[in-house]
Structures are given as C-alpha cells and as structure tokens.
Design goal:
Length: 207
C-alpha cells in the first residue's frame, strides 16, 4: 500500500470503527498527520510570539514584567494562530482514532484497547500493538487485508491460504510445469534378431 492509497483509504473511512487496517495504512496516515501538523504548529508559534511581543519588550533585565504589561497582549493574533491548530486537530481526531481501532482489530484485539493510551505509559503499549503484524486469517473483525499478498514461497505466485484456528490448513498447490517436447532427431531402430541357422532342427520353418 502506497502513501496515497493509505491516505485515501483512511479518509474514505473517516469515522469507520469496524473492519481491519494493515500496518502500512496506519503508519502512512500517521506520517501524513505529522506533515500536516508541522506547518500549523509553526504558524501558531509565530502568532504566539507576535501576540506576546509587547509583553516581552517591557521585561527588565531580571525578566520581571510590569503588571499592566499583560494589557498589551494582542489577543487577535493569538486567536488567529490558535484557529488552524484547533481545526486541524479536530479534523484529524476521528480518522486517527478510527484507523487505530482498525489496526487493533487487525492484531485480533478489541478497539477498546485505545483507552490505555489515556493512562501514563499506555502509549508505549499502543505503539507495540501498532507495529505488530496482523493475523494472517479472517478474524472476528473482518477478512485479512493482506490476504492477496501472502505467498507460499518463491516462484509459486499463488496467495497463501491460511486456515482458521482449529481448522486443518489448506495449502496452495504448486504451479504445473510443462516440459517442452524433445527435439526431432533420428529414431533408434529396434534390434534385428539374428538369422536362424538353417541346419538347426529347432529353427522355425522359413528361417
């Protein structure tokens, strides 16, 4: 799955919390979120500095700020910088959460595991789950999204057929190899039996 395919897949399932998401889909969208957030954060920092610049200018050598210096804050610039942050953050919230839930489903876990991210240190657990490969068979959350890319081995060219847990495996059949016919050439003649001795009393008549 390419970068563009992953973004299209996640945004087309903007608030879909059912099904499964493979690793490439999750991490490509994570990269997309970072790339979108970086310029927005830079813009916010620039507006924040511009809004509080009058306050910083009134600070003395010891860093003390007069009480009335806060009145010089340009709150309009602060709001201008805050609005894009809020819009982008809210816009990415649902798709980021939905693809995380589907990624958990791909590993065979309930989507409620995302709540562990609210606990200190829980983000590490989610990180481990996000890097794990999905279950190579249909699970209770849906079919394997990588089923068409799993193979039995080099040169077979057929998708791997994984069995459900508790069922006998179904192995893919190897391809049938057709050998070319042998090149034309002189055919070997059958051996000619030796002539019978005419003086042999056991020889067949006429030989």
């Amino acid at each position: 799955m390419s970068f563009g395919q992953a973004i299209k897949s996640v945004l087309s399932q903007y608030a879909t919390f059912s099904g499964r998401a493979r690793r490439a889909e999750y991490w490509w969208f994570y990269l997309f979120s970072v790339l979108v957030s970086i310029p927005v954060q830079i813009f916010f920092i620039a507006m924040y500095v511009a809004a509080f610049a009058p306050v910083f200018e009134q600070a003395d050598a010891g860093g003390a700020i007069p009480d009335d210096a806060l009145n010089a804050i340009d709150w309009s610039l602060f709001v201008v910088g805050l609005v894009p942050v809020a819009v982008v953050g809210l816009g990415l919230l649902l798709p980021s959460l939905s693809v995380l839930v589907r990624r958990l489903h791909d590993t065979g876990r309930s989507g409620l595991w995302w709540l562990i991210g609210l606990v200190p240190g829980g983000g590490i657990v989610l990180l481990v789950f996000a890097v794990l490969d999905g279950q190579p068979y249909d699970n209770e959350y849906g079919p394997d999204p990588k089923a068409g890319e799993r193979y039995t081995g080099p040169g077979y060219g057929q998708p791997q057929r994984y069995a459900q847990p508790g069922q006998p495996p179904q192995y893919a059949q190897p391809p049938t190899t057709t050998f070319p016919p042998p090149p034309p050439g002189p055919r070997a003649q059958p051996p000619v039996p030796p002539l019978a001795n005419p003086d042999d009393p056991f020889a067949a008549p006429g030989r």
